[in-house]
């Protein structure tokens, strides 16, 4: 799969997971779930980081992709520590997707760094 497509899919997955249940509050025997818009103001930064990752992957800005995915991972882990055992499945998947996004951005950056070096090495022959 092309690295642009993979990056956009990972970024959009982060945006979609923002709308999924992040926190589970039990109240009088009823399960109440909160999504990203209902959790806190910092979750909007999580949404912006995921959307930014999708846009940056299309423009092949790999270093900024790593930063955006790192911000999303850090906020997800911060929310996980804050909510503890009340965290819902959406938050866990969001952390996994943003972690995979960090790794994907890093590997794409390493491939980009190697390609000019290989071209220079091939010209010397």
Walkthrough of the structure:
There is one protein chain. Helix 1 runs antiparallel to helix 3, helix 1 (3-18) runs antiparallel to helix 5 (89-123) and helix 4 (62-83) packs antiparallel against helix 5 (89-123). The chain has one domain. It has 125 residues and is mainly alpha-helical. The protein has helices at residues 3-18, 36-39, 42-58, 62-83, 89-123, and strands spanning 23-27, 30-34. It contains five helices and two strands; from the N terminus they run H-E-E-H-H-H-H. Strands 1-2 form a two-stranded antiparallel ribbon. Keywords: Membrane, Transmembrane, Transmembrane helix.
Mean pLDDT: 87
The residue ranges in which pLDDT falls below 50 over 5 or more consecutive positions are none
Q: Quick one: how many beta strands?
A: 2
Number of helices: 5
What form results from the Cα inertia axes?
elongated
Percentage of residues assigned to helices: over 70%
Q: Give the termini separation.
A: 31 Å
Kindly estimate the percentage of residues that lie in beta strands according to DSSP: 5-15%
Order of helical and strand elements: HEEHHHH
Main sheet, how many strands, which sense, barrel?
Answer: 2 strands, antiparallel
Structural class: mainly alpha
Q: Largest beta sheet: what is the strand line-up?
A: 1-2
Rounded to an integer in angstroms, the radius of gyration calculated over CA atoms is 18 Å
Q: Tell me the number of structural domains.
A: 1
């Amino acid at each position: 799969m092309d690295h642009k497509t993979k990056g956009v899919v990972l970024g959009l997955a982060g945006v979609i997971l923002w709308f999924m249940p992040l926190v589970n509050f039990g109240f009088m025997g009823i399960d109440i779930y909160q999504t990203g818009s209902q959790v806190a103001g910092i979750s909007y930064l999580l949404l912006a980081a995921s959307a930014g990752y999708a846009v940056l992957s299309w423009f092949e800005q790999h270093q900024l992709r790593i930063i955006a995915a790192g911000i999303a991972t850090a906020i997800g882990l911060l929310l996980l520590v804050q909510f503890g055992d009340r965290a819902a499945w959406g938050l866990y998947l969001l952390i996994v997707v943003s972690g995979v996004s960090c790794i994907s951005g890093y590997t794409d950056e390493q491939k980009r760094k190697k390609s000019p070096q290989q071209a220079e090495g091939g010209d010397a022959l």
